[in-house]
Specification:
140 residues, Glutaredoxin, 4-stranded mixed beta sheet, 42% helix, 12% strand, 4 strands
Length: 140
């Protein structure tokens, strides 16, 4: 599923680092949280859908990590970076075993169909798009 983005050849070299590092801290935080947790909900205050997603996960008995960035009145720049990174236009952004599954209605459909349970039952090394880290043996 290729998404059209501006080719690097069409970006002036003087601004490439600025683009590459734009809001990198929030992206790094979300990426590391997604890597470390089976279920991650990324949301914002004042939006009812992240709360509904968390309630649905609570009701289904699935633990999750919640990250909240701003609200309708502030924090839009970091949220825009997340939208650009994922391509997902709204909040919440829900990740299951490293895979973006969409928002609340998408989560609800996975819960209702039983697919979420199946996704969470797979082994930790079977995350699509996530390469499991190999542990280095400790020096003795």
């Amino acid at each position: 599923m290729p998404r059209p983005i501006l080719d690097e050849a069409h970006i002036h070299p003087a601004i490439r680092d600025k683009i590459a590092n734009h809001q990198q801290a929030i992206l790094d935080e979300v990426k590391s949280t997604v890597e470390a947790n089976d279920v991650v909900v990324v949301g914002m205050a004042m939006n009812p859908f992240p709360a509904q997603a968390r309630k649905a996960l609570d009701d289904a008995g699935h633990p999750y990590k919640y990250l909240e960035y701003g609200n309708y009145l502030h924090g839009w720049r970091p949220r825009t970076a997340l939208k650009m990174w994922t391509g997902w236009p709204t909040f919440p952004m829900i990740f299951i075993k490293g895979t973006l599954i969409g928002g609340y209605t998408d989560l609800r459909a996975l819960i209702d169909s039983g697919e979420l349970k199946k996704m969470l039952a797979t082994s930790p090394g079977s995350r699509p798009g996530v390469t499991p880290r190999r542990r280095r043996p400790k020096a003795t």
